[in-house]
């Protein structure tokens, strides 16, 4: 089923990987995009690509852990875009963690970027959209949020937290017509996963973005990307904790 195309969208975490591809595909569909991340040169290069293809893009260098800057920046972006139909929160970090490593600095970065940055940006969008009874909020979670795996304790925690936040947001603002979409990708070929051991069912970022845009336009509540992960994770979630502890996944 085809969904409603977005006219103006914010993409937080637009400088590479899933966020960059999502921005390109939205722009190709006629959406005016605001590109947000720390690396200005990557954002400018992406904006040039979008403009060369006839699209419109604005660039805002920003670190999502500068939480205090977010309310004013959000308002500025909405003014520059001339309104807002959708926001995609794709910013995320997953530093490499050794199996015996406990590094609070890495853990803190994951909570700040993957959770608190999302809350700070999406709260702003929720207030704006709830006031008009329209708009779509999209958060990029992960299949990693479905279980606490030994390899990435805080990455898994951050994605579980994000998904619970998004569900609560949906239950708050869904009743006034705002859509909240939780995207749960399996492995995607991006800078985040480069250099990792062979990952199961890995897909290109272009394909992930295609499915993310389609699910967001349809207003799907929770979309696994690709869809097969819904069934894989249903099985993995059903594994008793004592057995899961013995497994190397
Ligand atoms: N790749 C996968 O297999 C996979 C699977 C499931 C879920 N995900 C999730 O998908 C999302 C996108 O990841 P990706 O794979 O596309 O990785 P990526 O290519 O490394 O992209 C991460 C994005 O987050 C931005 N970011 C990181 N820290 C930031 C900060 N402090 N402030 C602002 N922006 C920041 C980066 O921009 P700057 O560095 O320029 O700031 C970049 O645009 C993440 O939430 C990730 O957890 C990925």
What report would you give on this structure?
The chain has 249 residues and is α/β, with parallel strands linked by helices. It has a single domain, classed as Rossmann fold. The chain is 47% helix and 16% strand. The protein has eight helices and nine strands. The strands form two sheets. Strands 3-2-1-4-5-6-9 form a seven-stranded parallel beta sheet, sandwiched between helices. Helix 4 (104-132) links the parallel strand 4 and strand 5. The longest helix is centred in the middle third of the chain and has 29 residues, at 104-132. It starts with 7 loop residues before the first strand and ends with a helix. The structure holds NADP nicotinamide-adenine-dinucleotide phosphate. The site of NADP nicotinamide-adenine-dinucleotide phosphate (NAP) has 29 residues, from helix 1.
Strand order of the largest sheet: 3-2-1-4-5-6-9
If you average the pLDDT, what whole number results? 96
Note the main sheet. Answer: 7 strands, parallel
Radius of gyration: 17 Å
**How would the global form be characterised?**
globular
SSE blueprint and pairings:
Layout: E1 8-12, H1 17-28, E2 32-37, H2 40-52, E3 57-61, H3 70-81, E4 86-89, H4 104-132, E5 136-140, H5 153-173, E6 179-185, E7 188-189, E8 203-204, H6 205-218, E9 222-225, H7 228-238, H8 241-246
Parallel strand pairs: 1-2, 1-4, 2-3, 4-5, 5-6, 6-9, 7-8
Helix pairs in contact: 1-2, 1-6, 4-5
The chain binds NADP nicotinamide-adenine-dinucleotide phosphate.
